[in-house]
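Researcher: Before we compare anything, I want clean individual predictions. No alignment, no superposition, just each chain on its own. First chain goes here; please echo the sequence and then give the structure tokens.
Model: Echoing the first chain and its structure:
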Amino acid sequence: MSISPVHIVGGGLAGSEAAWQIAQAGVPVVLHEMRPVRGTDAHQTDGLAELVCSNSFRADDWTGNAVGLLHAEMRRLGSIIMSCGDAHQVPAGGALAVDREGFSQAVTGRLEAHPLVTIAREEVAGLPPADWDSVIVATGPLTSPALSAAVLELTGEGELSFFDAIAPIVNVESIDMNVCWRQSRYDKVGPGGDAAAYINCPMDKAQYEAFIDALLAGEKSEFKD
């Protein structure tokens, strides 16, 4: 008897991990990702598990941190996110940070190569069809308008609340290392063995206030209703 596939809507971190774990358990998966058919305001590629805010998975020390303990548990469970993160980590003190492009390409490649995973590049524009037996909706702040509207109607809610942040990227060539220095918080040695992974940029009061003024005057993202 054939097993009906589990349909997963959204190819981010959660959707990619769910697809991997289900397929590893011997159940077929159809992973629906709307990019590149429909883009978003934040993604730059069509890769799965593309990080669009911080490239840090936060603290990686399992002995004294809940996030680090979660990392350790995920590794024991064969997590694709942790495996690809470890393979593409960059120095970040006591945190696990990754190279965005290498990480996403690794997750995408492993899921594409899995015999029980089918990646459907299409938008699920509304509630999943009734003939999908098992469905996981793993979309977040960048959920398509059509799916968002369908969820609102189904739940009877007036609005959906998503919380996310955009982390700015600074070119290292623009940093004056005659003034700045490398040092990690608490001098912690990170998973990559580097205890001086962060670049510290000191400012006096005048410089700090000028920095704030420049941020306030800079180009901002468009706020949505």
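Researcher: Okay. Second chain, same rules.
Model: Second chain and its structure:
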Amino acid sequence: MIRLTIPGEPVAASRPQVPRFGSPYYKEPYNTYKKTVRKIIEKQYTDKVILEPLYVQIKFYRSVQKSVSKVERRRRLLGVHRPTMKPDIDNLFKAVTDACTGIVWKDDNQIVSTKSDKFYSEEPRVEIYVEEL
């Protein structure tokens, strides 16, 4: 099993912007996040690109908002209350899997089984677990 950790607040994939003339592009902060994640993954994963079907589990840990009470903060950090607000988990998943493409696996269409979770934490990060099937 491959385990990768991306420190920092998770960022969701944005929708491509399509100008009237020219090529589609992605807005910030997604572009910067994707480049940063790619650099981190390249340092952590030095094996060859996987070509087999994959199971991918991703855990997203985000910061607790500063505006909540101490009691609510504790509930969130213990996992009693989980993040239900934006960004959507599928957009978070896409941002990370797009960044792994070409480094860990050849194409994200190789992912045939997934599991994703959102949590609160004092240390925002993304944890990726990859298993060949």
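Researcher: What stands out in the second chain?
Model: Residues 30-44 form the longest helix (15 residues). Additionally, The chain has a mean pLDDT of 91.
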